[in-house]
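Batch manifest, entry 17 of 40.
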Amino acid sequence: MDRHLDDELQKLKEKLLKMASLTEKAIHDSFEALQKVDKNLAEAVIERDEQIDDLEIDNEEHAIELLALFQPMAKDLRFIVTAMHINAELELIADLTVNICQRVLELSDKGGALLGPINDLPHLADSAKWMVKNAIDAFVNNDEPLAEKVILSDSESNQLRSAVIKRLIDGFIVKDGKTAPRAIPLLLVARDLERICDRATYIAEEVIYMIQAKMIRHHREILNQDSPGPSV
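Output type: structure tokens
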């Protein structure tokens, strides 16, 4: 039975990786659509979201089935619980990319010209992509130091979002109210990118739980404390 469970856990991991790959592509394509105000690419990302939704349901059902059939304990139980949480976070990240693409459609309807330069917005998008990729890599490789690095980088994404918002409000909306219809969608994009970073942080926190059996959400100060790993 242990061999059978191992095989099923590997299948669940592979399906999560497929979902993660689609989600990372959605992040990349949604921001590319924004930069180019590419309506067709934005619509393609929105359409592909259904595939991610279907995977989310399938992965959750698979995980619940494993819990019911095998009644796993210790590290196997933590893996399944972590997989379920990551599954939900990836679906939420994909929803945020849909939000970004909806802002692209709004901008396209308003004439298609981006306000600029908003230099920190691409940096925030790069941060979001980096955090999601490395949070998933930490999960795949049981890499606790990488998970901690993702968590500790979240403060930078908050700073980037604040810089974008300040630039849009002070540099455009306050100076010329006529820019508001093009500035407000970018404010919402900055918010959604920062939320993607938050979701990546939650994934990294789940990875540490899986490895260490240690819950650090709301208690990130314990990252600086050395502690032995779990014995099982």
